[in-house]
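Researcher: Hi, I'm a grad student and pretty new to this. My advisor asked me to get structures for two proteins we've been looking at. I'm not sure of the right format, so I'll just paste the first sequence and hope you can take it from there.
Model: That works fine. Here's the first sequence with its structure tokens right after it:
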Amino acid sequence: MDLADILSTTAIPLSDITLERAIFAVIVAVIGWIVVRVLISAFKKGLTRASHLPELVTEFLVRFLSILLYVIVILVVLATLGVDISSMVIGLSAAIGLILGFGLQDTITNLAAGIWVAALRPIDKGELVEIKGISGKVTAVGIMATELLKADNTYITIPNSLVWGSPVINSSRMKTRRAEVRVRVAYDSDLDLAIRVATDLMAAHEAVLPSPKPAVIVSELAESSVNLVLRAWTETPDYWRVQWDLARDVIKAFGEAGIEIALPQVDVHLDRIE
């Protein structure tokens, strides 16, 4: 008996489906849907109250249980209609085996990667991460994919296998971060004064931490400028505010101190032809 024969045994003629059986199947489907929703809600509340699992792990388990319960409801409804469930299970198993042999390797990989991501937590819900060059806030880790929300409200779905198999830059995991602002000053400027003004600017910012102390380093002696880097430590939630404030205020502070912000220059020499 081949797969077609197995699946054909699960079908029943439409004439054998009575009105009473169809109505009963609809009632079973509605009751099953309600029961599944209640069980999922109770399961989620129970996990939240009785365990210390991270929210990401709880959501993953709830989604997995939801799929399992809905499959059971579908099988019960089919049995109510008179379908031979045992034959269907055999047929589905054979079909799944064939599909897995031809194209579900990636699906299994994503499923396994999702379990590892939820269990080991290289990322967590609400964290700002960068994966494969894509930056966004983690909204969920599903059975097959991880969901990110970008700063421009763009929704991104990344297969779990890429999340587990790629370097992940997590910008929210640590409590503090170092902001860096790069600025170019002219060679004829007072370099010591520029460093002192930039240091005082960072120290005066309310969100800059006193330890580690703010620092200004000379990063490069470029062709037309001395390149400085302002480095200031801050709490992670204040990172972007400090970054933007320093980039804006250093221009005004240097202008008031008479320090010239260097611009790219090109010297052109023209030879007179006689």
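Researcher: Oh nice, that was easy. Here's the second one.
Model: And its structure:
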Amino acid sequence: MVKVGVIGATGFTGEKLVEILLNHPKVEVAYIASRTKKPLLYSEIFPKFAQKTKIKCEPINVGKAVDSCDFLFLALPHTVSMRFVPAILSKGKKVIDLSADYRLNASLYKKFYNTTHLDSKNLKKAVYGLPELFAAKIKKTQLVANPGCYATSLILALYPLFNQNLVEVKVAVDSKSAVTGAGRKALLDFHYSNIENNFWAYKPFLHQHQPEVCRVIKGKSGSSPQLSFLPQVAGFEAGIYTTVHCSFKQRITQARLKTIYQDYYKDSFFIRISNSLPKLKDVVGTNFCDLGFAVDKSGRNGIIVSSIDNLIKGAAGQAVQNMNLMLGLGETAGFL
């Protein structure tokens, strides 16, 4: 059994990560920590785990985490992980960071997170953790930068289009995300009375996942997408529903488009190609990404829809999928 630890275990993502890991047949959850002031049974924070574990959630102590574990997950706020990663890697341990600290180069990181990166050495070594594109590199690395939730849904929808040079570079994208994507914050907008049956857009053209998407697609395909990206918050508990609006460089049929995606993702267990446009509830609670398509009568305009659970395929589930690759396990371990 591989001993794993989760630092930042009381946020939405950390909670989901612990839940998946406790059901994983090849790992033992040996260390859990958060910004708690004193050790507390994890099941006292989340009673649903009472029959699963007697482990305590402790104040963060990186030295103890490294001594207790072979493998660590950091589910921490942006700008915090880079303070811990060097010490973890120096002890030869493997780590997956679920924040944005290792997703962008130093200049983009400073621009979008208003902070100078403190670990340029390891930033250059980090592998972007999208298994459908980078599995070979993930298997060999010590440090994975787990993708953002929006970025996961966008890249999986966009990459085949740009890899095949099928579309014009200007693409309009809108994504509806569950409120849990904003984290466990005590903000008025996220009170039940404000979020229930509500819906709003935010950060048009400026969301921090946009440069992440463009950087990955350009680096992998050579094409430079120009995204008009509009993220939106919706009053449901979990999920992201992304719609890509694009113009094709030449006429294409819906059947041909579907075949291109099926061929590209034929070896990707967690990608499902739909015969119709996906429904969000079909992926909530799973690590799947459902992709569907529609093409107009001219064959020159279309939409690609991507649907994921923002806390699972968009965060914790994808992190476990990456861990499986890093440990030489099957990608589906812990899910089936």
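Researcher: Is there anything I should tell my advisor about the second?
Model: You could mention this: The CA atoms of residues 136 and 325 lie 9 Å apart.
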